[in-house]
Specification:
Number of strands: 15
Strand content: 5-15%
Order of helices and strands: EEEHEHHHEEEEHEHEEEHHEHHHHHHHEE
Largest sheet: 4 strands, parallel
Distance between the termini: 41 Å
Shape: elongated
Structural class: alpha/beta
Strand order of the largest sheet: 4-3-9-10
Oligomer: single chain
Helix content: 40-55%
Amino acid sequence: MPLTLYNSLVREKQVFEPIDPSRVTMYVCGPTVYNLVHIGNGRPAVVFDVLYRVLRGTYPQVVFARNITDIDDKINAAAADNGESIADLADRFTTAYNEDIEALGVLPPSVEPRATGHVNEIIATIETLIAGGHAYAAEGHVLFNVPSDPNYGQLSNRSLEDMIDGARVEVAPYKQDPKDFVLWKPSTPELPGWDSPWGRGRPGWHIECSAMINTHLGTTIDIHGGGSDLTFPHHENELAQSTCANGAAFVKYWVHNGMLTFGGEKMSKSLGNIETLRGLLETNDGEVLRYALLMGQYRSALAWGPAQLEQAKSALDRLYQALRIAGYGDERATSFANEPIDTLPDAVRAALEDDLNTPGALAALHAMAGEIHKTEDAAARAKLRRQMLVSGWYLGLFEQDPVAYFQVGAELPAERIEALIDERNAARAAKDYARADEIRAELLAADIELEDSREGTVWRRRD
């Protein structure tokens, strides 16, 4: 079946038909780099990573841009509080972000543009908007004239009359309309700034994405993604300014992921209920975190907490156990990175092409794991193992050796455990079963379980 995606603009699922099948374009809003990101920021990274993999397996070229916002008042404030330069702080947290999402198995994008590298393009876009009567300068600021766009509100399904002036935007005397939003603002000497026709200043948040999309992807792109919390005002403003500046459609498919909730509330820094991704990675395998993020349909809110992580760990254990039973080898999911999507098992492909139904794809993986447990046929197991690994590539799973996966975090050094296993094997060969049992008990006391099979003895850390 063809790929279908829920398009937020029309509020229904649509068959994905790219503008140019030889070059598919996707842009996803990245982080504002003033602090460590929380696990909620990890969800769009994982969701759109899966979409990127599906597109790569379907089309010959996919250009995926994920930006870095490194011009922002929060960055300025954090740098001042820390006593470091704005550039150093932004660089540090950009590096941290990329390290953290790499631990989630997220592939690097085709391009990672930064706002600071596109100020000239931002200024040019603003000049175009002013020339077209869609923006105006006032007291060192430049603002987008919202009433000049009759379609403003179409993405968030809001009419101008329904919007409460000042509820989500700054009310200021220099605005012609309270709903107008900032494209450019003046900078004081201690703040970062660039020379412009309107004086030294810096861009507003929304305009940077429009300029970077135009520069790297083109006037009209296939997919624009991000969290549902960005729909208004950020994406609504992007849509308005880009359409007015370019005189053309901006985005064909708007795709938004739902938020993570913690104790029934949206996870956010402002509520103080966040868990940083880096902190979670200190006590959890990144693949477990990724699995947990894939357990819910991406458009729905996803409850987050210890129970979800335990469930994800248990489920991933079952899958790795099946891979271990199926036989050992050097192949990992990355061995199938260039496999086209039509090599996927039908059930996995159908789920992923149905608006990224990752819970359905995971269920199909567990069905394959169940088949591995049921059969003793080596060829059948090898085929199922390959199908699981191909599926794992598209989901971003199974990058670890199935044996080593169960040994991470053991109390005893691996060399000591292997030496005790050798001693136990020798004791069993000598029919010294008492000593063999003592060794098993000694390892069990250190939370090490042994599994004997015709292929030999393997060990795993007991949770």
